[in-house]
UniProtKB/TrEMBL annotation:
ABC transmembrane type-1 domain location: 69-282
Transmembrane segments: 12-34, 72-97, 109-128, 140-160, 258-282
Range of residues in the leader sequence: none
InterPro entries noted in UniProt: MetI-like, MetI-like_sf
Topology class, membrane: Multi-pass membrane protein
Biological source species: Paenibacillus auburnensis
Subcellular location: Cell membrane
Record protein name field: Melibiose/raffinose/stachyose import permease protein MelC
Entry keywords, A to Z: Cell membrane, Membrane, Transmembrane, Transmembrane helix, Transport
Family: Belongs to the binding-protein-dependent transport system permease family.
C-alpha cells in the first residue's frame, strides 16, 4: 500500500532526528581524537574540531610511556575478564537453580533476593563490610562484590524458564544430572542471553572508576578509569610526566607543544577504544539476547 504524504513526512522527520542523534554522539568522539593527535600548544589556539591541524603522536607517547597507566590497563583487563566470566558463571548457576518450580523455599528465596535489589544499606555499611572481609585495598575488591547481579539473575531465570521443559525431562530420563543439563542444554541455548549480559557486565567493569577511587589506596591497584578520573581533575602535567620514557618523549618535543588538555584527550581515547572495538563482534548476540529477554520477560 502506498504511503500517504503524512506518513512519508513522519518517516523523513524520524530519519532526520536519528541523523542528528548520531552526529551528537559521534562528533565529541571525533573532536577528542583530533585534539589528542594535535600538538597541545596549537590546539589551545582553537579551531581544531574534526581534524588535527598540527599532527603529532607525542600525546600518546606521553600517556603510553607512563608505567602507572600501563599497569592500570592490566588491572582493568584482569578485572574485566575475571569479573565478566565469574559473574556469568554465578548468574547462570543461580538462575538455573531458582528456575526449578519445585525447589524448596523458592518463593522465599526469590523474595529475599528481590529485596536486596530494591534496598541497600548505603555506601558506609558497604565499605565496612568490604573492610571486614579484607577486600579493601586488594585486587579482589573489583571482582568479588560484583559476581552476583540480581537483575541479571532474574533476566537469565526468565530466559531459562522459556526453554521447553520436555528437553530437560528427556535429558533426565537419559540419566543426565543437573550439572550435565546445565552444561549441555542450558548454556548452549543461552548463548545470546549470556552474550548480552556479558557485554553489560564487561562495560560496567571497564568503565568503573568508583571502586578504585574509594576502596583502594594503593596506586598500583587502580584501574585505568580511576587514573583517568585523577588525570581529569589534575591541575598540571606532573602526574603523567614522571617516567623515563616520558622524559625521552619530551626530549623529542618542546614542552610548549604539550598541554594538559591534549594529554587528557589522548588518555580518554586510549581508555575508550578497546571496549568500542569489542562491541561490533558481540553486537549480533547483544541485539538477539536483548530481544529474546524482552519477549520472555
Amino acid at each position: 500500500m502506498k504511503a500517504t504524504l503524512l506518513e512519508r513526512t513522519a518517516q523523513w522527520i524520524i530519519v532526520l532526528l536519528l541523523i542528528l542523534l548520531c552526529v551528537s554522539v559521534i562528533y565529541p568522539f571525533l573532536y577528542m581524537l583530533a585534539i589528542s593527535l594535535n600538538t597541545g600548544a596549537d590546539a589551545a589556539k582553537g579551531g581544531v574540531y574534526l581534524w588535527p591541524r598540527s599532527f603529532t603522536w607525542i600525546n600518546y607517547e606521553i600517556v603510553l610511556g607512563n608505567p602507572v597507566i600501563r599497569h592500570a590497563y592490566l588491572i582493568t583487563i584482569g578485572r574485566t575478564v575475571l569479573g565478566t566470566f565469574g559473574g556469568l558463571a554465578v548468574t547462570i548457576m543461580a538462575a538455573y537453580g531458582l528456575s526449578y518450580k519445585h525447589l524448596p523455599f523458592r518463593n522465599g528465596i526469590l523474595t529475599y533476593i528481590l529485596i536486596t535489589m530494591l534496598f541497600n544499606g548505603g555506601l558506609i555499611p558497604f565499605y565496612i563490610q568490604l573492610f571486614k572481609l579484607g577486600l579493601t585495598n586488594t585486587f579482589w575488591v573489583y571482582v568479588i562484590p560484583g559476581l552476583f547481579s540480581v537483575w541479571n539473575m532474574f533476566v537469565m531465570q526468565k530466559f531459562i524458564q522459556g526453554i521447553p521443559e520436555v528437553m530437560i525431562e528427556c535429558a533426565e530420563l537419559d540419566g543426565a544430572g543437573p550439572f550435565r543439563i546445565l552444561l549441555q542444554i542450558i548454556v548452549p541455548l543461552s548463548k545470546p542471553m549470556l552474550a548480552a549480559l556479558g557485554l553489560f557486565t564487561a562495560v560496567g567493569h571497564w568503565n568503573d572508576w568508583f571502586s578504585g577511587a574509594f576502596y583502594v589506596n594503593d596506586q598500583n591497584l587502580i584501574p585505568v578509569q580511576t587514573f583517568l578520573q585523577q588525570l581529569l581533575t589534575a591541575q598540571d602535567l606532573s602526574s603523567v610526566l614522571s617516567s623515563n620514557q616520558n622524559q625521552e618523549a619530551l626530549a623529542r618535543s618542546s614542552m610548549s607543544n604539550i598541554t594538559l588538555m591534549s594529554v587528557k584527550m589522548a588518555t580518554v581515547m586510549i581508555s575508550a577504544l578497546p571496549i568500542l572495538l569489542v562491541y561490533p563482534f558481540l553486537q549480533k548476540y547483544f541485539v538477539k539476547g536483548v530481544m529474546i529477554g524482552s519477549v520472555k520477560g
